[in-house]
Design goal:
mainly alpha, elongated
């Protein structure tokens, strides 16, 4: 029984590590898409020939309530994560970048999501 128990524990550790790596890959892909968007690249790497166009990124302010008027704006990575429906990753990225607490970061992402839904 000890052998199987040890393997089950190892399997769970590997699954957890796999989930973390998938999140990291998704975050890096979002950052890459945002960097391409900032540079005006409309095709991702691996395609035959990327095209360039003059595209100015349009930062979206975080929440528009008076209490949160001084919050940092969302960047292209966070906006892309919101557009992809990856709210948890958007909150984490915003929190890591700004150093704000989880509750404030979630409120900022939720407000930006609501604002983009009303456009």
């Amino acid at each position: 029984m000890g052998k199987w128990f040890g393997q089950a524990s190892e399997i769970e550790e590997l699954r957890a590590e796999n989930r973390q790596l998938k999140e990291q890959v998704a975050n890096l892909e979002a950052r890459l898409r945002a960097a391409y968007a900032d540079a005006g690249v409309t095709a991702l790497a691996g395609s035959a020939s990327p095209t360039f166009e003059a595209a100015a990124p349009t930062p979206v302010p975080a929440p528009s309530s008076p209490a949160s008027a001084s919050l940092p704006e969302l960047n292209a990575v966070e906006l892309q994560l919101i557009a992809d429906g990856r709210m948890i990753n958007a909150v984490k990225t915003y929190k890591d970048r700004t150093g704000l607490d989880l509750k404030t970061s979630k409120a900022a992402i939720d407000a930006a999501r609501s604002a983009s839904a009303h456009r």
